[in-house]
Every structure is written in structure tokens, then in C-alpha cells.
Amino acid sequence: VTTAFLDRIDAVDSQVEAFLHVDREDALKQAGEVDNKRSAGEALGPLAGVPIAVKDVLCDETKACTCASRMLENFRPPYSSHVVNRLKAADAVLIGRTNMDEFAMGSSTENSGFQKTKNPWSLDSTPGGSSGGSAAAVAASMAPLALGTDTGGSIRQPAGFCGIVGLKPTYGRVSRYGLVAFASSLDQVGPMSHDVSGSARLLQAIAGHDPLDSTSLPEPVPDYLSTIDQPIDGLRIGICREHYGEGLSPEVDRAVQAAVDTYIEQGAEVVDVELPHSKYSVATYYIIAPSEASSNLARYDGIHYGYRAEKFDDMIDLYARSRGESFGAEVKRRIMLGTYALSAGYSDQYYNKALKVRRLIRRDFDDAFSKVDVILSPVTPSPAFKIGELADDPLAMYLSDIYTISANLAGIPGISIPAGQSESGLPIGLQLLGPTFGEETLFRAARMFEQ
Ligand code: GLN
Known about the structure:
With 451 residues, the chain is α/β, with parallel strands linked by helices. The chain contains 15 helices and eleven strands. The chain has helices at residues 2-16, 24-39, 82-89, 132-139, 156-162, 196-206, 224-227, 250-265, 281-296, 315-326, 329-342, 348-368, 394-399, 405-410, 439-450; strands spanning 19-21, 51-55, 93-98, 145-150, 165-168, 188-193, 236-239, 269-272, 374-378, 414-421, 427-433. The two termini are 26 Å apart.
């Protein structure tokens, strides 16, 4: 199996450019170890021999971890992330490291410091981002499963653009230990796959409490696969009218309405819900995420980690040159935005205000989930955009995150599933949001649609 996927990578990745690093020998060695275990009659893990692509933001002590940044081009982490250790314990084969927007900042994978990943459905379109490499790897059958991370949509949006399934778990469901931090209060690791059961299987392997991440929660992990095929009787689907206004492309609108009809045919009930503060979610996110990023990225000083400028006058100059020469434009933009929003005299006006709005957004969801099981919405306002189309317009790029971002602010789970195609043949995604720890409900509801 591993050989087949490696051959597929050899055949198509020169066009798609989903992977930053594939070590054929190492992957075959891992697969060989699983084979030996099997021959010796040893018990095998639940992902035995399954190749998994890993976003290049998750530390694996046996490999470089670049976060698609020149800053970390040669960085080898001294330890492995919790999720990588879990996959190894499950006997998975970690087949390669996938491309992403630098430090996961972006929605198109164009912000990678190394290469631009293409959407396998149409090579002049982006695969979405920031987990665009993982999404493209799965969509082009270069790996059956992949790990991504989602701070404001980076699993769900590329899954939607590439016609696959992707799930952002509840904040605290999956350990962030060894995940290079972008915005610590929003980041979550999650699964990407061809179908819903693939994501359930992968989440099963990585979810659960980890004492090494103080924000990981000690909630028992249900057996997702044992219930996934049970349709939810009288599923209550929340629809927020505000989601269907200006800015939503007619093709996506049609696909989402058709999905609602499919659910109604299966006995689901549609309930109107109100999320009155969701209109502030993009503004709130783009204060909080850059603020946390500016603080997290302060550690890249040219001394402790990564790139160091060759020529400098003094220590301050060393910091400035090392960061200036190795960070890309979007990362610099975020650092400046965040530093400004946190600075004395402005933090009450921006950062602290954003935290208050975040609380209101969270409260809207609590109210809504007292009435419904899931909230159904588009993943993005339109199908995949072209490479370069939004690259020079960061505000337009930020606005395209409108449907995904509020889940991260509220800490709730969300799944993106394929829901048809546009006229030009690009995939359209459907999003289901659930209450805290509602992953099991999301899998079951998503599976009802898939079947
Ligand atoms: N597109 C969003 C951003 O640029 C989300 C990124 C993410 O989820 N990592 O911040």
C-alpha cells in the first residue's frame, strides 16, 4: 500500500506540489516494521500500514519541521508532537510532510515560503489553506488520510475547495503538544479524508487527554465508528438566515439548499437560529489571531531557533535582520497587526474588546444549540479561487473565512463535507457545526448526507 501511494506521489506531485518532503526509504521502512509485526503475530494498531500525510507544522523528531517558513527551513524539533506519537503508536505510516501557508497564516497555501500547491481539480486554482498541501494530497490520492490544523478554517476550507472531508475538533479535544503555535486559543489539529468514516477513524487515533497540553480536556473519547452509521432520528438542523445574504455565490447557495432538502427527505427538521454576533467574527478573529501570533512568533529571534542573518551590527539588528530576511509578507503583516492591537494604549480598544465580542459569539452558539443538534452552512462563499486572484488583497482573503472562523472563536467542532460541484467542475463544501464535544453527532449527521 505504501509503495502504491509513493508511486502516485512520484507520478503527480510534480504538478500538484502538495508535499514539502517525502522520504521514500523512511516510509518503506515504517511499512516494513508493520509487516514484521504482523508476521511475528504481534497485535497491530488501528491504523496499521495506513499512509498518512502530515502538515509541516506538527513536530516529528525524525524530520525537519519548517512550517513552510524560511525561518525554520533547517529546524529539526527535539521532540515529537502528541499526535505524531499517537499515529506511530497506531502503526500508521507517516508518508510525507505537506505544504501550508507560512505558520498556517492564510487561506490559499500561496503564503508558503517554498512552493504553491495546486488544486488537483483545476491546477490554476488554489487548494485553499492553510492546510492546502494536506487537502491536495488526499484529493489527488497521494495519501488516504492527512492531518491538518485549523485556527480559523484551515482544515474545513481546503477540504471544501478540494472535495474531501475535514473536521476541526472541539478546542481541547486533541492535544496541541508539539504543534507549532499560531494562535494558541484557536489552534486545533484534525483529520482530513475522502469520506466521513476516514476522518472518524483518524480522530479516534489522535483524540483524548494529554497531560502535556494544559488546554487538553479530560473528556472520554466516544467510539465514533460504532455509531457513525446510525442516522439521527428527527435531526434538528439550525439555519442562520444571515448566512445566505450578500456575498454568497449562487452556485454555493444552490448546493447548500439542495443539501437541506436531502436532510428533510430523511426526516430532519429545519429550525431558524440566530447568531446575532456572527457578523463581527471576521473582525474579532483578525484581532485575536494576529495578537496571539505576534506573541507566539516573538520566539523566532535568530538566536534560539532557525534562521540567523549573516551580517548584523548589534543584537537588535540581529533580531531585525533575521526576522526581516526570513518571514514572508503575510507573517510580517500579522505580527505588526497583533503588536499594534496589544500595545499599551490600544489593547483596551482592540484586543480586550475583541475578547468580549468573542464571549458574545460563544453565547450565541450556546443559545442556538439549546434548540438544534447541528448548524448547517456553506464552508466558503464561493468555490476555489484562482492562484493569484486574491493574493494582493488580504482583506478579500480574510473575508472569505466568514463561515469558518466563528467555530474557532467559540471552540466548537465543525466538519466540511463534499456537496456537489460548480458549473466549472470545482467542488463545493457543506459545513456542519456542532456543540462542544459534538463530534459524534457531526460524524453521524455527515454520514447521513454522504450515504
Ligand atoms: N485563513 C485564516 C487565517 O489566515 C485561518 C488560518 C488557519 O486556520 N490556520 O488566519
